[in-house]
């Protein structure tokens, strides 16, 4: 499982011009799954994302978590996180989970985040052509992976 975490002041995702998910301050998550991912990886990642201390405290240090600030989450499926370009220039996606595996993982991960996140948890539409808009909140972008 791989997740790109972007701290945002706001983010939204559109499908066919319609907003399907929108959040205020919090994290935009781009999420990719592998065939072998299980509940253990999902739970670990949900805990990690909600507990990341990347929001500033009163002294301007990154010391507060999403839970501490009551932030929101926008979860967007992104199988291309497992694109492999070691050979050639066209990505191979053999390491990305097939939708029959990835959809239940995506839904379960979103459910685990809803259980842990004090703010709103919104999602994109799995497999849809999505346009994601975001306003960064500082230089905070992290890549998390759990095998």
Structural notes for this entry:
The chain is α/β, with parallel strands linked by helices. It has one domain (2-145): D-tyrosyl-tRNA(Tyr) deacylase (D-tyrosyl-trna(Tyr) Deacylase, Chain: A, 3-Layer(bba) Sandwich), CATH 3.50.80. It has helices at 39-51, 66-69, 99-116; strands at residues 2-15, 18-23, 26-32, 53-56, 62-65, 72-77, 121-123, 130-145. The strands form 2 sheets. Strands 1, 2, 3, 6, 7 and 8 form a 6-stranded mixed β-sheet that branches. Strand 1 and strand 2 form a beta hairpin. Helix 1 crosses helix 3. The longest helix is centred in the last third of the chain and has 18 residues, at 99-116. The radius of gyration is 15 Å and the shape is globular. The N and C termini lie close together (6 Å). The model has no long low-confidence stretch (mean pLDDT 95).
N-to-C order of helices and strands: EEEHEEHEHEE
Strand content: 35-45%
Q: Level of helix content?
A: 10-25%
Radius of gyration over all CA atoms, rounded: 15 Å
The parts where pLDDT drops under 50 for at least 5 residues are: none
What is the approximate shape? Answer: globular
Ends apart, CA distance between termini: 6 Å
CATH topology: D-tyrosyl-trna(Tyr) Deacylase, Chain: A
Number of H/I helices:
3
**Would you report the number of β strands?**
8
Q: CATH class, please?
A: Alpha Beta
Main sheet attributes: strand count, strand direction, barrel closure: 6 strands, mixed
Q: What is the CATH architecture term?
A: 3-Layer(bba) Sandwich
The CATH superfamily label reads D-tyrosyl-tRNA(Tyr) deacylase
How many structural domains are formed by the residues? 1
| Mean pLDDT over the residues | 95
Global structural class? alpha/beta
